[in-house]
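Sequence in, structure out. Go.
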Amino acid sequence: MFKKRIAFKLTAGFISIVLVSMLALGIIFVQVFRQYAFDSRQETMLVKARSIAQVVSENMPSNGQMRGFGGFARFLDTMAEAKVWVMDRQGNPLILTGMGQGTVGDAAGKGAGLGFDMSPGMGAGMGTRSGAGQEHSFYSGPLPPEAEKVIQDVLSGKESISRSFSDVYHEATLTVGIPITDSNKNVIGSVLMHMPVTGITDALDKTISILLISLFVALIVAIGLGVFYSFIFTRPLKIMNNVALEMARGNYTARTGINRQDELGHLGNSLDFLSSELGIAIEKVNQLEQVRRDFVANVSHEFRTPLTVIRGSLEALTDGTIQSREDIERYQKRMLSETRSLERLVSDLLELSRLQSGKISIILEPVYIANLLCDVVKNLQSIADKKSITLVCNVPDDLPPISGDYDRLRQLFVIFLDNAIKYSPDKTTVIIQADRTNTLNIMIQDQGYGIPEEELPYIWDRFYKTDKSRTSKGTGLGLAIARHLVELLKGQVVIESILGKGTTVMIRFPLIL
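Output:
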């Protein structure tokens, strides 16, 4: 189970990266160090071998016999710090060092000091050689392949280098060969220098030990850092997972509380935003559901009252309870009035439905508000006269036209003026004014009963009535229709009201550019 967790994967990945990186760097370092040690020692041996070849070339007798070179051999032993083998043009050894001996004769029978042996067939006189009036024994046994190759290359006039692993020294060795030439550049002999690359094996072993220790320490640090960073990385993920589960349970108040500027912080903020938006959406859905329930209840109520009146009147007429002609006419008028109320309610519901669904088509044309308002005032004057309400229309004739639909604008102003007359006491005044700023502004102000401040946000809702007893006439859909008409005509509307002093409706429309 733990292997499936992202913390384990992050830690394992972190450790793998450190391990691979350390091993790669260690291997590269060891190879570079080894190559540098060989190259440095090789260059030193070449310089010394060239110097020896130059000295031997200047002092070698024409007959090739090396006499009185014991001191020179001892000097080479000290100066070269390696086994030096001076050979003639046939490949026969003339001087050997590195064994505490000076000449070939002194070195007889001690070829092991060289680390390799001469083969008997390696040139004339390889078995025995006369020197200083006496016969000397040479080494027997085959030369290592790399030594043979060096001798062959040098006698052909080329410098040669060979690297190998010596079973005698138990470490890497270097063999270099330099040709000895006379003044005419003819090869008259060769110088072989053979030595172990002292200390390289030990140094490499120490380097590898240090590398392993460093690798172990790095792994411990990598494990610690991996666990630490995995915790830092996975902790926000666990929090976001818990918030997501809470959201799935319907708790949209859950928040991550992550305050970071990286991708995890952005993801946490997005999750918080999603939770907030889902909470708002659910709240809106609940509100819409409540509106739907209220709408059904309001429609049922609005239909029930007139239907109850009509049914009661019809039952009274049918049963013969009402006999007099005057009572019959009164009941008939009541049923007609309630039928008209039902008709108006159905008409308003259909109108509102078309407005909300966008199925209302408007014909945009230049409309002069002054003429339109005067027309509306004339049509409503008879209603105002019944309550002795004065309609004052202060609208300048020179107002610029707006782009709108004449019939829809007329419907809009009828709704507002009808409400102003309906909810104003007798013998009051309703003022209609208009002016121009950046927009065309129309104001309808009455001296009515006013609307409580706490009810102002709800006056645009369907079936909302400030008269909770519902004794007032009207369907409660007028302002809802008016708001949709204003939006359809690209306008804005604001209603301000003071309880007991009156209500002011302010409508703004954009001018024709």
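Check: The longest helix spans residues 263-319. The two ends are 71 Å apart (CA to CA).
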